[in-house]
Amino acid sequence: MMQKNGQDNMSDDKSIRVKVIEVTRWAPTLLSFKVTRPDGFKFTAGQFVRLGIHGKDLQYFAQNHDAKLITSETQGDEAQGHEAQGHEAQDKPIDLDGYVFRPYSVASSPYDEFIEFFSVVIPEGEFTSKVNHIQVGDSLLLNTTPFGYLTLARYQLPLPNDLWLLATGTGLAPFLSILKTIDVWQQYQRIILVYSARTSQELAYQAQISSIKSIYGDNGAAFVFLPIVTREADYAGEKARIPNLILSGKLTELVGQKLDKERSHVMLCGNPQMVEDTKEALKSIGLTMNRRGEGNIAVENYW
Ligand SMILES: Cc1cc2nc3c(=O)[nH]c(=O)nc-3n(C[C@H](O)[C@H](O)[C@H](O)COP(=O)(O)OP(=O)(O)OC[C@H]3O[C@@H](n4cnc5c(N)ncnc54)[C@H](O)[C@@H]3O)c2cc1C
Ligand SMILES: NC(=O)c1ccc[n+]([C@@H]2O[C@H](COP(=O)([O-])OP(=O)(O)OC[C@H]3O[C@@H](n4cnc5c(N)ncnc54)[C@H](OP(=O)(O)O)[C@@H]3O)[C@@H](O)[C@H]2O)c1
């Protein structure tokens, strides 16, 4: 049975094996990876899927004897190690025993031939302690039912004018996907991306964010990007948390645009306490939660 926030250790339907084709490491506890996109797999920018991982599908655990000592599931797995991956017959059901599933936002564009994910590493985390070791050629399970309503379609009123995308950490992922669609640049007049990380090393995707408008939104909405680094005393840019920037009025000053009940759509994604504090800050200046299409604020909590 699925637990809070879609976490569980089983997946009951539509799990397909996908292959890791690229891994990018941003920092010791932060990485992105691309996997093959199954034929016919569709999603809307902003949605998430459920990924399944098992040590036996990762070369690291199949080859590293020390690693086997710290993961009980790899014991006695030699016969079905990574060499076996990817060779299942198309019609053979996948044995899900021992797989750990977690929800992950898609960071890539719906137009891309691959699917990209952006992941934190929690050293003691059941899922990410394994993801930390993925390499090109490894495999994961992808549950091909996409979930979630952090999508542009949820907004009806107010009409699209300004889109504020406020993220902490890996909460950036769904916003990257949204920004990698042509629609968003055509629908809005202004798009503001605010992205808060603990350190400048953990501010991932900087080069991609710099070029995103010229690739997807040439001649489209005006774009403002505000990176925030909260735990580096000598960081030259903005260091305050997102809710504080809203309450002090500094956010609208830095961006040069008001947060406004009549014209702002605001999406929040990442740390649940940030989501909660930011919601309260936005409500205190008159914005409302989006319900049945109406209202300003839409959210996604990551844990
Ligand atoms: C809708 C949805 C979408 C998600 N999308 C992503 C995504 O794109 N990328 C991603 O890395 N995670 C994402 N997550 C979180 C992800 O599902 C797992 O929680 C995460 O992979 C950690 O799994 P774990 O088993 O290692 O540790 P867990 O036992 O799941 O988590 C342990 C603790 O780690 C912390 N934590 C969990 N996730 C994060 C995170 N992303 N950033 C910082 N701290 C965290 C929390 O304190 C949590 O209690 C998403 C969660 C939800 C509900
Ligand atoms: N990032 C690391 O160095 C590191 C290292 C090892 C393990 N981990 C694991 O990863 C998890 C944290 O990952 P993370 O750094 O990506 O996520 P995070 O703790 O959510 O921090 C990401 C950003 O969100 C900000 N933030 C946190 N709470 C907020 C709030 N209430 N309002 C506004 N902003 C808020 C942080 O600011 P503040 O800095 O002000 O909190 C930071 O800028 C931890 O649970 C830990 O187990 C992280």
Descriptive report:
The protein is an alpha/beta fold and 303 residues long. It folds into 2 domains: 15-65 and 91-147, Translation factors (Elongation Factor Tu (Ef-tu), domain 3, Beta Barrel), CATH 2.40.30.10; 152-301, 3-Layer(aba) Sandwich (Rossmann fold), CATH 3.40.50.80. Helices cover 21% and strands 27% of the residues. The protein contains 9 helices and 11 strands. The chain has helices spanning 59-63, 65-70, 128-131, 173-179, 182-187, 206-216, 242-248, 250-255, 272-284, and strands spanning 15-27, 30-36, 48-53, 100-105, 114-120, 139-147, 162-168, 190-197, 222-229, 264-270, 297-301. Bound molecules: flavin-adenine dinucleotide and NADP nicotinamide-adenine-dinucleotide phosphate. Residues 5-7, 48, 102-105, 117-120, 122, 125-128, 169-170, 173, 300, 302-303 line the site of flavin-adenine dinucleotide (FAD).
Feature tags:
single chain; 303 residues; alpha/beta; Elongation Factor Tu (Ef-tu), domain 3; Rossmann fold; 2 domains; 6-stranded antiparallel β-sheet; globular; binds flavin-adenine dinucleotide; binds NADP nicotinamide-adenine-dinucleotide phosphate
Overall residue-averaged pLDDT value: 90
Cofactors, ions and other ligands in the entry = flavin-adenine dinucleotide, NADP nicotinamide-adenine-dinucleotide phosphate
Q: Write the CATH architecture name of the largest domain.
A: 3-Layer(aba) Sandwich
CATH superfamily of the largest domain: Nucleotide-binding domain of ferredoxin-NADP reductase (FNR) module
Instruction: Give the distance, in angstroms, between the N- and C-terminal Cα atoms.
Output: 17 Å
Q: Given this structure, which CATH class of the largest domain is correct? A: Alpha Beta
* Number of discrete helical segments: 9
What is the H/E order?
A: EEEHHEEHEEHHEHEHHEHE
- What topology, given as strand order, has the largest sheet? 4-3-6-1-2-5
Poorly predicted parts: 69-87
**What is the overall silhouette?**
globular
Q: Write down the domain tally.
A: 2
Largest sheet: 6 strands, antiparallel
Protein name: ferredoxin--NADP(+) reductase
Pfam family, one: NAD_binding_1
GO molecular function: ferredoxin-NADP+ reductase activity; nucleotide binding
Catalytic activity: 2 reduced [2Fe-2S]-[ferredoxin] + NADP(+) + H(+) = 2 oxidized [2Fe-2S]-[ferredoxin] + NADPH
